[in-house]
Amino acid sequence: MTTPALLPLSGRRIPPLNLGPPSFPHHRATLRLSEKFILLLILSAFITLCFGAFFFLPDSSKHKRFDLGLEDVLIPHVDAGKGAKHPGIFLIHGPDEHRHREEEERLRNKIRADHEKALEEAKEKLKKSREEIRAEIQTEKNKVVQEMKIREKKPLPAVPIPNLIGTHGGDPEDNDLREKREKIKEMMKHAWDNYRIYGWGHNELRPIARKGHSTNIFGTSQMGATIVDALDTLYIMGLHDEFRDGQKWIENNLDFSVNSEVSVFEVNIRFIGGLLAAYYLSGEEIFKIKAVQLAEKLLPAFNTPTGIPWAMVNLKSGVGRNWGWASAGSSILAEFGTLHMEFVHLSYLTGNPIYYKKVMHIRKLLQKMDRPNGLYPNYLNPRTGRWGQYHTSVGGLGDSFYEYLLKAWLMSDKTDHEARKMYDDAVEAIEKHLIRKSRGGLTFIGEWKNGHLEKKMGHLACFAGGMFVLGADGSRMDKAGHYLELGAEIARTCHESYDRTALKLGPESFKFDGAVEAVAVRQAEKYYILRPEVIETYWYLWRFTHDPRYREWGWEAALAIEKYCRVSGGFSGVKDVYSSTPTHDDVQQSFFLAETLKYLYLLFSGDDLLPLDHWVFNTEAHPLPVLHLANTTLSRNPAVR
Ligand code: DMJ
């Protein structure tokens, strides 16, 4: 049997390779299969080389020939000299032709020698065992990975770091306060230590089952959400060993090149916010680098017809989509509207305006849209740019959009007037259409649904007490007093929602309906999952009024959490705050460490720790410094090149 591959391509016969006994035709047929295979490999390597050489030869398209009656040749990449029309090209005549031929011959010889060398190498390779070849491939791979790691760790361009004031301190003036603050720190240690033992690297902890926990917002991969979310709390509490432990995990394990679909909003507020805050507080470059790497992975979510990002994005493929439950394939206001702070900081730190542009585009688009009663609906379709259902809420689905308008202004050192105007307009519409007083005199924020006001307020909406107080200074027509009062009223209502339960912990949402005031009615709304919003509002009110009642209310909440949510393996949410024998949900949420415990700690600290004229907290309680920029817009600031 003739091996077709042994026939020379030109059609001429070549003597058979001397690979065995004398070459009688029938001996060729007796070659062992493995030998045939080796011959086949050598020949195909040779063909590949010839093919490759074709590409290594100078590009013929660059050697334009002109028929000038002379054997004139155009040679590329040589200085044309003065007066030449085509720089880089000049003509060679008569005597130079010899030199050119020599050059061609030299090239041909080089290619021939390269072929020989490659053939030899191929033969050598074939002598090696499979294991050796595998090991060589692995070494090559490792080299590439190593190089990539070095490239990843390259420091980003330096920008002037804002003046960081109050990253330490806040030591309370009296013993009682000191003890309370120490107690909160001890609670943080209990939450962290148990996560460290039973859930390390997982997103969250199941404190009763004593194992890791996760939800779809973090995707399918172990991204250590609790570590990233908790870092800045550890830092301000002075838990430095724990902080370093978290940092090490991030350095060695936090990887965003995973085939996992995550929530853009959640990953932004918890991971990018957490990493940026850790960077500003500690000055450790790794946090900034990781934040930027992650942000790069989120950018494909903005590839929609309108530029309104998808709710979810696959970190590997960049494919985005929206939640199946959202009205008509819409994106959610509180999600795409809660990117601004982090993205502006990313542009500031990297000098890359892309992040800033993405969020400003969202703002511009929203400004152009009609708003029913001046209210922003919760749903917006990213394909059509039209609102979905006309539902408006200052609680879930809407909340942090309003918060970020105010905080964009604060973070810009009060120079982003556009954001302040949008906030003022929105708050006026909210007051007019959503805020009411109950028969018993409790001020609440309802939700606009299907053409009427639903008299129900979510735990999430309780954050607005703090927001109104924070936005009081700088409000229109000097209504600062009014907004301080409004914030205090919301705080009182939310405190009532806690006080009217058996556990002194607030339900997920509560009604105002006839005799029912600030109480959950449906079983499915009676849970408390370690949320921070009420304590957050107490803290803002404390900072702005120094009314001792907010510290008292905060301490009540801390004691209730300690009594009903603490288990030996950490802290857990409870399923029914009206039952004096609580059932645990067995989840220690990452925001418990990021927010609830941080706000409690700050409540019992002096105001010199993270002062509010220098720091703005993102919606996950990660402090970001005010950017004292000289210009009114970031794009005109030299820091963003
Ligand atoms: C946190 O992740 C953030 O505060 C977010 O804005 C909404 N609420 C949760 C905690 O309740």
Number of strands: 20
Number of helical elements: 19
Q: Describe the sheet with the most strands.
A: 3 strands, antiparallel
* Helix share bin: 40-55%
Q: Which ligands are bound?
A: 1-deoxymannojirimycin
Gross morphology is: globular
When the domains are counted, the total is 1
- Low-pLDDT residue spans: 1-31, 52-94, 630-634, 636-641
SSE-based structural type: mainly alpha
β-sheet strand percentage: 5-15%
What gyration radius follows from the Cα positions, in whole Å? 34 Å
Provide the spatial order of strands within the biggest beta sheet: 5-6-7
- What's the pLDDT, averaged over the residues? 85
CATH topology term: Glycosyltransferase
User: Can you name the CATH architecture?
Assistant: Alpha/alpha barrel
CATH class bucket: Mainly Alpha
- Give the N-terminus to C-terminus distance in angstroms: 71 Å
Subcellular location: Endomembrane system
Family: Belongs to the glycosyl hydrolase 47 family.
Pfam family, one: Glyco_hydro_47
Coiled coil: 101-143
